[in-house]
Design a protein that fits this description.
Structural class: mainly alpha
Helix content: 55-70%
Order of helices and strands: HHHH
Number of domains: 1
Distance between the termini: 15 Å
Shape: elongated
CATH architecture: Up-down Bundle
CATH superfamily: DksA, coiled-coil domain
Length: 116
């Protein structure tokens, strides 16, 4: 049974909320890195590392931040794709792409861009 008009409105609202959250997180990350040096980001008072482990910690944090930015970008693309599917074919939104079965509304409420 397809989603009701009320459920589709709810899912659209959830997708827009999640899109706004993802964009905010991505923009915050970009802003933090755009106007600061490595020294400022790490909070170091000097440019000379006190220990080699400090360099490793800074590198690890940069890699973690880049990984999170990639994850958020992918999530944003999934959300945008879900909004496109919702607008183009609302009658089939919420149908699993792999099985053709109805995705439970509770799952769509939690992850509105779910494909299965």
């Amino acid at each position: 049974m397809p989603l009701s008009a009320k459920q589709l409105e709810h899912i659209e609202r959830r997708l827009r909320e999640e899109r706004s959250r993802a964009l905010s997180n991505l923009n915050r990350s970009v802003t933090e890195y755009s106007g600061s040096t490595d020294q400022e980001r790490s909070g170091d008072l000097t440019s000379m590392p006190l220990h080699m482990a400090d360099v490793g910690t800074d590198t690890m944090q940069e890699e973690l931040d880049a990984s999170n930015e990639t994850r958020i970008s992918r999530e944003l693309a999934e959300i945008d794709d879900a909004l496109t599917r919702l607008y183009k074919t609302p009658e089939s939104f919420g149908i699993s792409e792999s099985t053709g079965a109805q995705i439970p509304f509770e799952r769509l409420d939690a992850i509105p861009w779910a494909r299965s």
